[in-house]
Amino acid sequence: MWQLLPPAALLLLGKSESLADPSKAVVLLDPPWNRVLKNDHVALKCQGDYRVEDNSTKWWHNGTRISSQTSSYIIADAKVEDSGEYECQTGLSALSDPVKLEVHIDWLLLQATKWVVNVGEPIQLKCHSWKKTPVVKVQYFQNGRGKKYFHQNSDFYIPEAKLEHSGSYFCRGIIGTKNESSESVQIIVQGPGTSQTVSSFFPPWHQITFCLVMGLVFVVDTWLYFSVQRHLQNSEEWRNGKVTWSKGP
């Protein structure tokens, strides 16, 4: 198959493979919640390969480089302006995908490890209070209906997600003498094969671009090949005196 490809196409293929070599760094949240309250403590950890002589890490917040060069970026006292997208990069890794952090101001906040889950995966919800203020008589709601009640604040855990677990969730509890509720958030449960079906019909844009470029290069190389062959044939006929003349009309 490789011998059928024109030289320019092989060169382009080699370059595309070399560009795909570096592995991406990964940003992890600790604790693993991407929605937090003001004054919370958050640690963002960068996982990636380092050079032997250089273990520094580059961090970005909303596209702007930040000064930290350690593998963990610590937010000791979260503020609303700390919200946004975080990216990192190590010496031997490509830039990570962005991880979004949301800092809210409220008494209660519903947290989840994932907002989009596949059927069969676990769902973990936490009714988080500001400055870890004690909360009692905690209820979790789905689409306005009570799903779970705890006298003392506890996480709501669904071992295996089903399609009917999709919906709008919030929690409610008693803080002191006040009945407080969190904002509602959406949790989506995907059926089996959902993501594969979409990707099979719609390949990633870089694959489409690569195929178009390969096709164009193949057409140009083929045209050049036949053009050169025709030119060489004409030159050979001229040298051998085989040029023929036709009468005019």
TrEMBL record:
A GO term from the CC aspect: external side of plasma membrane
InterPro entries: Ig-like_dom, Ig-like_dom_sf, Ig-like_fold, Ig_Fc_receptor, Ig_sub
CDD domains: Ig1_FcgammaR_like, Ig2_FcgammaR_like
Protein name according to UniProt: Low affinity immunoglobulin gamma Fc region receptor III-A
TM segment ranges: 205-226
Single GO term (MF): IgG binding
Gene3D superfamilies: Immunoglobulins
Keyword match Transmembrane helix: yes
Record's subcellular location: Cell membrane
Span of the signal peptide: 1-20
Upper taxonomic lineage: Eukaryota, Metazoa, Chordata, Craniata, Vertebrata
Domain Ig-like: 22-102, 120-172
Gene Ontology biological-process entries: antibody-dependent cellular cytotoxicity
